[in-house]
Amino acid sequence: xxxxxxxxxxxxxxxxxxxxxxxxxxxxxxxxxxxxxxxxxxxxxxxxxxxxxxxxxxxxxxxxxxxxxxxxxxxxxxxxxxxxxxxxxxxxxxxxxxxxxxxxxxxxxxxxxxxxxxxxxxxxxxxxxxxxxxxxxxxxxxxxxxxxxxxxxxxxxxxxxxxxxxxxxxxxxxxxxxxxxxxxxxxxxxxxxxxxxxxxxxxxxxxxxxxxxxxxxxxxxxxxxxxxxxxxxxxxxxxxxxxxxxxxxxxxxxxxxxxxxxxxxxxxxxxxxxxxxxxxxxxxxxxxxxxxxxxxxxxxxxxxxxxxxxxxxxxxxxxxxxxxxxxxxxxxxxxxxxxxxxxxxxxxxxxxxxxxxxxxxxxxxxxxxxxxxxxxxxxxxxxxxxxxxxxxxxxxxxxxxxxxxx
Length: 406
Prior knowledge:
The chain is an alpha+beta fold. It contains 13 helices and twelve strands. A six-stranded mixed β-barrel has the order 2-3-10-5-7-6. Helix 9 (266-309) runs parallel beside helix 12 (371-395). It is elongated and about 105 Å long.
């Protein structure tokens, strides 16, 4: 009997006993579905983070009071010890760091924004300088962005996010209209194009005003975020080192002291995310591995039953010249076929789950093209490992005794 015939026997057995086949393969189906679905979610999140969260642009990093912290204790410690960043810090970076070709400051607060009888609560009000456009450009829906002159003279002008404009000015051109922020009137000069959301959090719920105007309204005690862009020909690390040296000198830090500020780069965000997803994937593999072990045990039991049911067939094959290794290979192929059948069903179910998550939830699941190969590898391993005992038992049967079996 060749390998193809062994596969046909296994498939005929599956079709002939659909309920028993489903129960036999249930563990493998659930295991493969779970691991491929988890891989799809992690793959989608990785792509999402790389595209939207960690895409700071080439040569760009952000200096902030806290930076990236892995746990709550470190966050509270940084909040207690780190000094707020001021406009003077941004000016020092601009003056003393040759590799900082662009330096822009930004600070945020939440406030209500209103126009006549309409209002939007908890809008992200960002105080910015005009240099931010050279680091984080905004696509315009209508109008224009803030100008350096408006920042210098603390003008009462505002640039709206698409969602805020849509709620305050439905079917109206917002340019020239005046909105209220904390009781102060601002002339709308432009609206950004729609940017969508990140994990269900809108990226269009913002208002940008000059940072000088912001500090007159909210005070200057809030810490800034300073975005720095290095020249394209310069490496990112030397530019970060220059900024670190300038800020440490301004903050009078001893040589052995830790930085009292954080530097966030795309690589740092990706490293943190990779560590997190590595932990999630390890836990998922352990849990899913239990399902595959249970599924493999069920397959082994079914194959042992098949050996008993086909004892006479095995004896006849041996009597006409089949070697023990031929019998062993036949049952191993059948075991692998059963396991892979469950694996392919699991892949199909996982594909449907990933598509549903992408369509109906904020999770950006992305089904990886190598998932079927992963499923085949896992199922082949399960089929071989749990098929060895039944195959060995079938190969060791005495042909004379086997022919006497009814």
